[in-house]
Amino acid sequence: MGIVFNKGGIFTTVQDYGRMGYQNLGFHVCGVMDRHAYWAANLLVDNTDREAVIEFTISGPTLYFTSDTVICITGGDFDPKINGEAVPMYAAIKVQKGDELEMGFCKSGTWGYVAFAGGLDVPQVMGSRSTDIKCRLGGLEGRQIKDGDEIHFLSSVKTLPLMGQRRIERPDYGGDVVELRVTMGPQDDHFTEKGIRTFLESEYTVTSQCDRMGYRLEGDVIEHNELGADIISDGIAKGAIQVPSSGQPIIMMSDRQTLGGYTKIANVISVDLSKIAQCKYPQKVRFTKVSVEEAQRIYMMERERFRLLNERFIKRSFIHRLFNHWKN
After folding, report:
1. pLDDT tens-digit map of 62-103
2. Whole-angstrom Cα distance, residue 26 to residue 92?
3. Does residue 186 have a cis bond before it (omega within 30 degrees)?
């Protein structure tokens, strides 16, 4: 028992943390676009931080539940409703057999997520349940979800301890200008001093040419030096900022190619990847340089925040179960 997709949405897939360890063989990492929203969704339904979720964009799916469960909706605001009634985001919600969850058009942000307590019964391929559309593997038959598709749950979880407390603050997407912290390199030596200043001091606009592979930006031209824009192809990390000969930056995302031959001026730090993922045309962004050590410190602080949240729910759940045991 699980869910049936009465409507598949514009682009809905099964995703998890990503397919790690196979880029050297030419396979994309894939995985969710917004890891913060993904971690939060799984945390609130008591899943591990690598469990598969449903990811969607622009216009979300409509799900019919064939069994009771607990869900959490995170990411952009898709105006979620169960049986026509608005439901909260970033909170654990009980869902009953026969209920219908409807997602509308996104009001803010770009990507949305639904996590299911106990997880989705989707086969692991090379250690991941993520959908790789280009290689047609993982997820649901390696493709995006269509009307009428059905996915079962790995286990039946009808309720969780302290349901009313399983909620966290919803992030604010947008703002006039989104600041993206970056570490410079590995080919920042291919740019003039003017080009580096332009990159760090200018505002860039997120264009409509954005997808799971990459986000194209538009703004002042970033000037290369005599070394030029082309390099011998090398590996590409998520958040790498390629600058081809046009001088316009491209931020590489979850479905990026494994290798690329354009210069990479910098890399968005992992904590800020969720910010750019939730941007859409014509959002403005700016880049701020940080050291690798600072980026690592910021990352560890973020992981500690999620660890403490998880620990809080585990402790409260244990006390709640113990109290009920004594009471009975």
Report:
1. 999 999 999 999 999 999 999 999 999 999 999 999 999 999
2. 38
3. yes
Whole-number pLDDT of residue 318:
42
Contacts of residue 175, defined as CB under 8 A and 6 or more positions apart, other chains included, come to none
Q: Strand, helix or coil at 167?
A: strand
**How far is residue 223's CA from residue 246's CA, in Å, rounded to a whole number?**
9
CB proximity list for 226: less than 8 A, separation 6 or greater: none
CA distances from 233 to 82, 182, 216, 230, 257 (A): 48, 21, 20, 8, 11
Q: For the chain, which ranges sit under pLDDT 70?
A: 314-328
Quote the CA–CA distance of 244 and 217 in Å, as a whole number. 12
Which of 121, 118, 119, 125 lies closest to 142 in space, CA to CA?
A: 125
Question: What is residue 138's DSSP assignment?
Answer: S
